[in-house]
Amino acid sequence: xxxxxxxxxxxxxxxxxxxxxxxxxxxxxxxxxxxxxxxxxxxxxxxxxxxxxxxxxxxxxxxxxxxxxxxxxxxxxxxxxxxxxxxxxxxxxxxxxxxxxxxxxxxxxxxxxxxxxxxxxxxxxxxxxxxxxxxxxxxxxxxxxxxxxxxxxxxxxxxxxxxxxxxxxxxxxxxxxxxxxxxxxxxxxxxxxxxxxxxxxxxxxxxxxxxxxxxxxxxxxxxxxxxxxxxxxxxxxxxxxxxxxxxxxxxxxxxxxxxxxxxxxxxxxxxxxxxxxxxxxxxxxxxxxxxxxxxxxxxx
Length: 300
Hints:
mainly alpha
């Protein structure tokens, strides 16, 4: 379809560049707000806004009970756990480090496809897996990670989020979800955000009224809701139904670069030589994983 020739590149831009900037934005906001509260406000607000926009566009919000269960489950995998815990981990690790670790997401997706779906790993992809593990070792073996307070815990929790996102990426390819991508995104965000607020209350986080947020955090939240949530996450769900999960995971090619540059420029985060080497090895591994998959897909 002609519309897809425009929508697919725009959707990739959203998950590449906008999501790359969210690491820095979340790091700014978590300086004042508790992590689960921050993520919960972000996603419930975005979900409610999407519902309003969907109704204005004439889309029905009526979905089946099975779709309600599935969107709630996906909202938990992607947002409640997959995003909320990453925001929590940003209290202990730099935003550029978090983005670099998540660069191994295609590796996690590939391994889950092998473990859960029995898909064979091609030789080229096996090289990518090996390079991915080498890159991860280079990344997490740095002294500032091993010696920093709770840094290693943050690393491990981010990895668990990658497993959650990876499984969610596979689940949505066959799950019964609302056909309209906008409505689908709205329900995932609303349920995911609601569960985050419940988690925030359960963990005893302090809730600060939006009027008491500093100006920087207020602007950050607006950007996170409109662009980081509504635009980017709708694009993510759209792409998962139009291209393979591995191709969607290639957003990790660009996300770390955007996150590193913004973390360095805006937050004065340091970029070590070992982190640069780890990024090069990781992204080379991601290239091998995805180029191997493309070669298979292009055979007649």
